[in-house]
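Troubleshooting entry. The earlier prediction with uridine-5'-diphosphate gave an output that would not parse, so I re-checked the input for stray whitespace and re-submitted. Clean input:
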Amino acid sequence: MSALPTDKPHMTFLFSDTGGGHRAACEAIIEAIHCEFKDAVITQMVDFLKDYAPPPFNHLPEAYPDLVRVPELWGAMFDISDGRSQARFVTSIFWPYVRRAARRLVNDHHSEMLVSVHPLATTFALKALGKNRPPFVTVVTDMVSTHALWFDHRADLTIVPTEMARQVAIGYTMSPEKVLVVGQPVSQGCNAPIGDRSHLRKDFGWPKGKKVILLVGGGEGMGPLAETAHAIDESGLDVCLVIVTGRNSKLEAELKEQTWENPAFVYGFVHDMPDFMRAADVIVTKAGPGTIAEALIAELPIILYAKLPGQEDGNVDFVVSEGVGVWAPEPLQVVRALTRWVCRTNERQQVVKNCRRAARPDAARIIARTLGEKVGLT
Ligand code: UDP
């Protein structure tokens, strides 16, 4: 496919549906670009794994939920491949196998700019583009423990969500002036004023006068969501449970069948997560970067009940060090943290203040303006 016949600049975004975070970040940037520049630019998202990678890599998006259900295995794969020389080794041995697909990808999408929103896309796309290429920007969507595969010296700019991630990049000998800390891009819907939670609760049909505990396991409904929900339900706390299972429809069906002591609302994949967050009092979640960034903007204290070893270790450090939440890998620890925040309003208020300080609501708009500048839109 060649570029559409128009004089507007084209931007191609390389992402893949391994988890919900890459797509969410990519859509947030594109939404912000169109808010900033209206239709002065043409944007396109390409799932480079599903649509271009040779087998078995093209099956990674559908295999991802099963792969991460064995977190130890995922953590081991992350650790073995992380590091500058390991990343170079991985990209060199796979290059002969993926070269043709990578070249087809870049030839199909002649653009004025390419943006990688996935660690597996960056180096292969840069190799396929060669020397005579348009500007190339990487937007890192992991908060702190950013895998070495994200970083390639040839990228014109690498945008990271936190100062901790910038230090990791510099550790991989990226030039400091080409690594910019902006924040995790989230949808513009997250930036609506928090307003009156009771109106939203009424719209959702949740009961009045109870603390609302929102449970989420990322886009795929991962981690011990059921055990954690039941531990809260049986704890004696007088709360309302809102459980979002994402694309894990088996878990959704199971939880809908079960009986609960407290009012409990079970949902599959929801498309109005910012409203769910604004209507809740506390979030109990897997340590996904997108969910954490959105919760900070919604001023929602965070209890992390699960993480992907390696990849999400740093997210836990970030949440704890910013004072915006706690790490509670056992259901009993979740209940304990929750009890403190439900019973001691002052403690919860301090965490809410910390969320306000750590939130980066304008990240997507800043990224959009930065990309626009590179194609002459400002
Ligand atoms: N999400 C959503 N609806 C759901 C579950 C999740 O919109 O039912 C969104 C969530 O708001 C976040 C993304 O999916 O933007 C999940 O990204 P995260 O980085 O937290 O975790 P991942 O799924 O990539 O592990």
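This one parsed fine. The two ends are 28 Å apart (CA to CA).
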